[in-house]
Amino acid sequence: MPKVLVSDPIDQAGIDILSQVAQVDVNTGLSAAELVRIIPEYDALMIRSGTQVTKEIIEAGNLLKIIGRAGVGVDNVDVPAATRKGIVVVNSPEGNTIAAAEHAIAMMLSMSRHIPEANASVKSGKWERNRFIGVEVYKKTLGIVGLGKIGSHLAAAAKAMGMKLLAYDPFISTERAEQLGCRLVELELLMRESDYITLHIPKTPETLHLINAQVLSKMKPTARIINCARGGIIDEAALAEAIKEGKIAGAAIDVYEHEPLEADSPLRSVGQNIVLTPHLGASTAEAQVNVAIDVAEQIRDVLLGLPARSAVNIPGIFPDSIEKLKPYLQLAETLGNLVSQLAGGRVDYLNVQLQGELANNQSQPVVVAALKGLLSQALRERVNYVNASIEAKERGIRVVETRDASIRDYTGSLHLMAKGTLGEHTVTGAVLGENEIRITSVDDFPVNVSPTHHMLFTLHRDMPGIIGKIGSQLGSFNVNIASMQVGRKIVRGDAVMVLSLDDPLPEGILAEIIKVPGIRDAYTVNL
Asked: pTM for the complete prediction?
């Protein structure tokens, strides 16, 4: 039974799901050295924001198949190292959407009405109504940096509160922004015109200290900024200075570049114009249950050999496309495996052509699946959907993707051409009926066969006696034929024969088959 390590506190609902398929060990508060020591025992690791999954931990996890982050951000995981090792990294992009958006609104209102200071004042025995004069958010301009799921939900709530909306997001269309009631602008204009600015973007090398002293200087002196996204997007020293000097009116911060917030952080000395919370954006009972269930289900699925719906490091695999493309991914992997064995040895070129209706779908996951199949003979279990593209690139395989929607032999088909040690070979396949995979051509000879574990392919002259002689050869080696089909273009020209076998071919039989008069070449294939 596989083993799962849960190294941060998660809701029991997630543990219950994992327990259906694995032994689950909950062991929180581990040091990096302790994790490196015990991680070799585990097939999966489930974390929140507390565990830092470093390259050293990943390298030690020889059994690891998946790392699940119960939340959105994965900046505490060395994703490139996991990708290179073929480990799937998943998150829960929607589980805490509502919680994070509501917390941003709560932070905005808290600093607008001085709620933290007023609360402390009353609890200390004072009654200072005149000291805590606030401002309304009604008819104020809110600048939203990042119109993803959280930013979009916040936009709807802010619009209902009567706020005017600006948005900066280089990856969203003007039409989508307008649907959300936002005017799409550049970051500088948003900073200059907004009364409130809220951040909802990931932490990346491009967004690190995106909000720095220069950007803060563009803000109105009455403006306030909120960060419930990721620590490090704001230069904290520059923010503290801007508030102290009155360049901006205040800030509400939930996430920090270093967590827990350091004792000597400049944010601690700002005073009453800043609201600080200890990374509470996803800290609602509902969100904790949602993210635990979401990620636990994905870990369970991967351990059962199924795809993850929210993998952050599988190129082109998106939740809404997995079910639709699943049979074609299996087809692509099968054809990749087949053509690699026909081409033999090292393959240095692969052309992947999507045909018919398949040409109108996402191509990247299909290409990745084909590469996984292509490399499976050489790398076995070391290659998967995560690292197939990396392994292909490191081996100097040139990959070309083409589309031809005009080819309508089948509703949707896939054609692969590979160049390798044994020359150039092509295979085509399609998905028929109830997700039944068929090989429909080999080296441009038409066939219609189901892939099986043991197969024999021959190139021969179409002449009497060939089929009987091959059958006799196999019989002499006690190999049983399950099915046989011949594909030819002209009578008594060249032809391809495909045999599905119940048994593997013994050593030496291929050399005997090639000696049969009329046989030009023969290939054993194990799928």
From this structure: 0.64
